[in-house]
Amino acid sequence: MIGSSLARQLRDAGLEWHPAPGDFFRIEGPEFASDETFTVSDMTIEPHEFDTGTILGFNGTTEWALDSVALEQALWLPREDQLRERLGGAFRALTARPDGAWRVTTHSGGADHDFEAADAASAYAFALLALIDVTALR
């Protein structure tokens, strides 16, 4: 799972989130633990669409008084498969390096580009950040 800092960079670069079951997120704000991760689930946390925006409803939560949170307060932590999907046709390869790191290779602008990180999800995230940046310049 990518870290909060990298997830914020993706969000700030324009990566949109449409909550679905299985998605991981954290709630941003001083009243929440920064390392507590939630999972969208049809049973406990469901996205609800309103004219005013999307909220994440906490169904049956008894431990603390949290009924819902605005999508803007939630930080999506995209999974490896979701990041790879967002790369689309630019994705070329994921390879494990001998030192245990991971490399994602993409193709854009007529050239291949490599992105390395300690875990595969972060390598995908760095590649997606670069792809978003390139497409924003067009």
Structural class: alpha+beta
Low-confidence runs of at least 5 consecutive residues: none
How many distinct beta strands?
A: 9
Largest sheet: 3 strands, antiparallel
How far apart the termini lie comes to: 30 Å
Radius of gyration (Å):
17 Å
Number of helices: 3
Mean pLDDT value: 88
Lateral arrangement of strands in the main beta sheet = 2-1-6
Strand content: 25-35%
What is the H-and-E element order? HEEEEEEHEEEH
Shape: elongated
Helix content: 25-40%
Organism: Gryllotalpicola kribbensis
Protein name: Pilus assembly protein CpaE
Describe the structure.
By secondary structure, the chain is of the alpha+beta class. The chain has 3 helices and 9 strands, in the order H-E-E-E-E-E-E-H-E-E-E-H. Strands 2-1-6 form a 3-stranded antiparallel sheet. Strands 3-4-5 form a 3-stranded antiparallel sheet, with no helix packed on it. The protein starts with a helix and ends with a helix.
Describe, in short, the structure shown.
26% of the residues lie in helices and 33% in strands. The chain has 138 residues and is of the alpha+beta class.
Descriptive keywords:
three-stranded antiparallel β-sheet; alpha+beta; 9 strands; 3 helices; 138 residues; Pilus assembly protein CpaE
SSE blueprint and pairings:
Blueprint: H1 4-13, E1 24-27, E2 38-39, E3 45-50, E4 53-58, E5 68-70, E6 74-77, H2 80-87, E7 91-96, E8 102-108, E9 111-117, H3 120-137
Antiparallel strand pairs: 1-2, 1-6, 3-4, 4-5, 7-8, 8-9
